[in-house]
Amino acid sequence: MNLGIRAFLYTARKWKKSLLLFCLLLSITTLVLSGLAIADAQEKQTEEMRGTTGASFTVERNLSTGGWTSGTYGSYSTQEFITDEMLQEISSIDGISGYDASIVSMPTLYQDQKVQSTSCPVHSFCDWNSEQQGKEKLITNGKVHDFYTYGSVNTEYNDLFVSGRFKLVEGSHITEDVANGLIINRERAEVNDLEIGDTLEGRIDPYGEDPVIEMEIIGFFDIVADKDDEANMLDDSTMWDYTDYAFCSINAMKEMAVNYEDGSKIREADFYVSDAVELNNVIEEVKNISSINWNNFIITANDEVYQNISSSLSDTETLITTLIVVITVVSMVLIILILSMSTRSRKRETGILLAVGIAKPAVILQYVLETLLIAVVAFPLAYLSSKQVAGVLGTLFGKASESVIVQPEHFVLVAVGGGILLITAVLISSISAMRLKPRQILSQME
Q1: How, if at all, do strands 245-249 and 148-152 pair?
Q2: How many CB atoms within 10 Å of residue 402?
Q3: For residue 176, how many C-alpha atoms fall within 13 Å in the half-sphere facing its CB?
């Protein structure tokens, strides 16, 4: 009788054993396929996280290697500042996705609106010198405010936006191409009836001789995080509410701060990398820029967020991999036990087949075909069922169900790997019977 026919007839005749093996293969393959889909979703999340966690490094003046001097507004360091040339050289290194350099000051912003009355209206600041009469100062709830303002090269890479504390909700970010742009809080803008395209005039000291710079509002931001949720630095910014923050073009800030010895120059800059894993390599390349005297500057890596998230994701990935391995090993043991019990119950049949001249490899091949006939049905059905199960199981690992997708390549991997494991299981389970001669096998059955 043909080998394939014998395998098919035995599988049909022993339908209970075949059904048990089928259910086992269906369940195991479904779980493994789901695990691979979850692992794939985890890997994609890790890759996305590597580019979106804001991993960066800061270049700042090394005040310990510089001298000190005194000026009109007190003592200040004579250490060299960060120049535009330095910014261009560093940002040109491969792996840097963008950067921001800021000059921080507290200018007053005015609406250019003439006062019609001789008495001070609620929106006026009438005790300035005559030059400022008719300038309306931005206010909130009747209180006069200045602004804690970043003169930025690129606000998209300002830490307040990168960290998610602020979110641009209207308009556009300030870039190097924007000469006199301004971004303010949307709540503050609504109180003062300001819209995108309106112009404001800024001046650092309203009582002094500082120049007045006209700026155009190009964007509004919302406050996403409370200030109390962040670890605040002990600097001037702690005295300001987030609604008092503003961002202007760095050139506008330089023009407003022209009267201050070191107030119009860049003290530090943040550079963001496209892949957090490459942060240290990028920093090493930056340090190799020979035109920069690194004795005068300090580089600090900022990857705490990435390290924390990466550690959590790595733990999850290890857990998923461990579960897949455990499921595979346990299922392999179960299948070997089932096949071994089946082989022992077929000793008489095996002995007869060997006695009539059928070679041992042919008998083993029949056993292999019997198992693969069941797998040929179980594997495709497992592929279909895993498409439904994977998303549900993925939610247990914090994944969105729609992101956990069983791919055809997962099925190919499991089908090939599963087939090899099944063949191995048949060979292992057949060792005890195949090492005996036909007469020994039949004698044991008497």
Answers
A1: parallel
A2: 9
A3: 8
Rounded-to-integer distance, Cα 152 and Cα 103, Å? 7
Distance, CA of 262 to CA of 328 (rounded, Å): 66
Please state the rounded mean pLDDT for residues 291-306: 85
- Give this prediction's pTM: 0.61
- Given a contact cutoff of 8 angstroms between Cβ atoms, the answer to whether 51 and 98 are in contact is no
State pLDDT tens for residues 304-327. Answer: 666 666 666 777 788 888 988 998
Q: Give the domain ranges of the chain.
A: 3-48+310-445, 55-302
- Tell me how far apart the alpha carbons of residues 413 and 294 are, in angstroms, rounded to a whole number: 51
Amino acid identity of 419? G
> What burial letters (b/e) apply to 160-171, b meaning 16+ CB within 10 Å?
bbbeebbebeeb
Q: For 182-196, how does the pLDDT look when each residue is reduced to its tens digit (9 = 90+)?
A: 999 999 899 888 999
Q: How does pLDDT run across 162-176, given as a tens digit for each residue?
A: 888 899 999 999 998
Do 402 and 38 meet the contact criterion of CB atoms below 8 Å apart? no
Residue 331 confidence (pLDDT): 87
Backbone angles phi, psi at 259, to 5 degrees: -85, 0
Q: Is 331 exposed, middle or buried (0-12, 13-18, 19+ CB in 10 A)?
A: buried
Q: Where do the DSSP E strands lie in 164-296?
A: 166-171, 181-185, 199-203, 213-223, 245-249, 268-273
Q: Per the structure block, which two tokens stand in for 94?
A: 């491969």
**Cα–Cα distance for residue pair 238/309, rounded to 1 Å:** 27
- Quote the DSSP letter at residue 407: -
The per-residue pLDDT for range 46-59, each reduced to its tens digit, is: 766 665 556 889 99
Q: pLDDT tens for residues 123-144?
A: 333 343 444 445 566 655 444 4
